[in-house]
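ok here's the first one, seq then struct tokens
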Amino acid sequence: MVIRLLTRFLKSFQIRAGGVVGIAFLASSCMPDGVASVEVESADFAELDGDLEDSTGRAIWALPLNESANSADAGKYCVISTEPEEVLLRCKLPAEYMRRSDDVLLVEDLDADGIRDLVLGAPDAHDESMQLCGAVVFVSGSNGGVLKHYFGPERGSFGYRILRAHDRDNDGFDDLIIGDPWNESGTDGIRGTVWLTSFATGETLGRYRVDVSNRNLGFSIERLQNNETGHNRYVVASHDPRSESNSVGGFTFLNEALEPVLRIQLGPGYRRRDSGRFRCTSVPDTDGDGWEDLLYSSPDQAPKSLTLLSGKTGELLYSVPPREKSGATFPLGGMSVDCNLDGVQDFFVGVKHLKDNQFEFIRAIDGSSGLALYETYLRPLSRWVMRAKHSRIVPDIDGDGVDDLCLVPQQLIIEDIADSQMFFYLSGRTGKQIQLH
């Protein structure tokens, strides 16, 4: 512990004294003139951490189409397996549910056909009285057919965000945290709401909202877990100047009953009224207090750096310097490995091109200091990988003792890709491309 604290102090001193001094030792394999690679015979994904298995034991992912310029593609999603690389389901929500949110959850096999089913948000759905209230939709993992749905309890955008929660009603199913940023329950305008909803019945088990108009509450929600107790906190971004903190930038930490336990006000450089543009993700505990920490960015607001906050106290741990002459930097959720084998989990961020807004670089960030360990230039890989917003950590493929990265092209959700390799793999240790054959 003493050695770790001393190392962290020295690295933090580097940040203060030299700004972005850590950027100087980026891996040479990631230079823009090409992507170095290593070749391996095969990969075993039978125990893929953080994802679910189907009845055959394959690791499976559910992926949404995050955005599409073509309205005909809106609402599409797919389910894939990694070994073998295969699209198990490519589907689209029925038209009556309008567009789909960015969240797709794999859940239990509700229709008992041996294949796990899915939960999707439909924030533009109308109920039987044609009131815009939003919905949460349960669909079959085998054919995409709708199994059931829950409409929002009030007029609004129920289903804009969906997260798993603990089983609060003790019925054997993990319940749901639902974001509803355009909720119109009050007489003083739109005020967002976060709902705790029963997975089995749709009953409201709890809610969080403030007593004044706040049209952003529920856009950005992230779950933080205590590694020692298993308890959760839910971090809600709230940025309306009429909010109770009278601030245009802040986060509220909620307990499992959606009761506030901590409020954080951001500095002027990180404030933004549109909380939907705040991108948050949990990262492994970097300060040793037992709680996962919170990494967030405000890509349209200067400075374009990312900031890491303590999941327990909300204090600023460090800022991740932006990449010079590049576009927005955003956190890649669920992506963490110990790249440099120092005993602290490191994490990954994506960097967009300054002009065309395409996903251009992946950077590995040292969990102890916030300095860049290496970056990988993505353009030489494939034109499809520039839309690879879906990334996962997979067990060590290249045998260097560090888990690796898998990138899934966004276009795969829309149609088959005529590439020799459906997914793209990068070494977690070096950022080099891994060729499977």
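and now the second one, same deal
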Amino acid sequence: MEHHPERLKSDEVEYIQRLARSLQANESWWRPLFEQWQALGEGFSDTEMQHRAMRALRKSLEELKER
């Protein structure tokens, strides 16, 4: 919108509104996950250990999802 100041079409406005509502609703689950990912990554100074920790977190989430 900033780069194209012309009036948006109705379907574009509806899409943006749906996207905003979806992001707001989903924030309840993804924000804590990203905060933990960030905290986990900051806990290691070695890049390889950061990647290993992130993979372990992802694997644990996948296992929870399967149940």
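notes on #2: Residues 37 and 54 are 7 Å apart (CA to CA). The radius of gyration is 18 Å.
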